[in-house]
Structure formats: C-alpha cells, structure tokens
Design goal:
Number of strands: 8
Helix content: 10-25%
Order of helices and strands: HEEEEEEEHEH
CATH architecture: Alpha-Beta Complex
Number of domains: 1
Radius of gyration: 15 Å
Shape: globular
Strand content: 25-35%
CATH superfamily: Inorganic pyrophosphatase
Structural class: alpha+beta
CATH class: Alpha Beta
Strand order of the largest sheet: 1-4-5-7-6
C-alpha cells in the first residue's frame, strides 16, 4: 500500500474493482474465502457504465465493504486496486435497506484530474448512473429507491464512519 495515498484517507481511497465497466456479470468478493464469485448475470438489458467495487478497510451499515463507483476512461478488471478521489455519492435504498455508493474518479487518470466535486461531472453521466440503478433489478422484481446525489463532504463523512466501524470490528 502506498503510504502517501493511504495516509490521505478519506480524500484518497483504495478501491478494489469487482465489476469492470461494460459488464453484465455481477461479481462479488467473498471476504471469507478471499475470491471473487459470479453473483449473477443482470437480467435487464443494461450493463455497468462505470467500474464498480468496494473501498478497502471500510464496513458499511449492511455489513459489506463500502461500495464505490469509479469513473475512469478505460475499464479495469476484477481484482484491480485503484486509488480514487471521492467526489460525492449516490444515496439509495434496496431490498437490503439503506445503501450509499461513493462516486470516485481515478487519481491516475489524467482525463479526470480536473474533477474534485460532484458538480464538475457531466450532468448526463449522473443521470445515466441513476438510471442504471433504477433499472438493473427490474426483471428480478426487486425495487430500488434512489434518494439522490450527495456532495463530497457527505461522502467523506460516510467514509470516516465506515472506516471507524471497520477498525472497531477488526481490532477486537
């Protein structure tokens, strides 16, 4: 772990990609076994239009690592670790309850260097992401309620709380 980036948490976070952009396969990391498993193939005619994964050393309310949406020009691959800069987050609720997804840009993607805040994203890109989450479970008869986008400060608060929860869980 690069100490320079690791010490910058939560302004810079380590994202582990589970699903590369363009995929219809939903992979999930099995923390106990230390492997990636195919959870399901999306049944709707949609695909992930961003890299999707989780943030190292965090624990969200649902017991999983904190979810991350990564904006990067080229898709990465399952298991790839990427340093990201949080710029906001999408608050939603699904069949498992409250769900917050931190929106990030890749630190090492020069095309994203200018993006520091949610307002600097192309508005249509944010609508596309919302639309994905509104529709990707429709044919599974599962409802998703999008509460809306939250700013960078809110995302940093969520990350700090989720890191504290992870630290309590793993230090005991």
């Amino acid at each position: 772990m690069s100490s320079k980036h690791a010490e910058a948490f939560p302004e810079i976070i380590e994202i582990v990609v589970e699903i590369p952009r363009g995929s219809r396969n939903k992979y999930e990391y099995d923390e106990d076994a230390g492997v990636y498993r195919l959870d399901r193939v999306l049944s709707s005619a949609v695909f992930y239009n961003f890299d999707y994964g989780f943030i190292e050393h965090t624990r969200a309310d649902d017991g999983d690592h904190t979810d991350a949406l990564l904006i990067i020009d080229e898709p990465t691959f399952t298991g790839c670790h990427v340093w990201g800069r949080p710029i906001g987050g999408l608050e939603m609720r699904d069949e498992k309850g409250f769900d917050f997804k931190v929106l990030c840009v890749a630190v090492d993607d020069p095309h994203q260097q200018h993006i520091e805040r949610l307002e600097q994203m192309r508005p249509h890109r944010l609508v596309e992401i919302e639309h994905f989450f509104e529709t990707y479970k429709l044919l599974e008869n599962k409802a998703v309620d999008i509460a809306g986008w939250r700013d960078r400060d809110h995302a940093l608060e969520v990350l700090a709380a989720d890191r504290a929860r992870y630290t309590r869980e793993t230090s005991g």
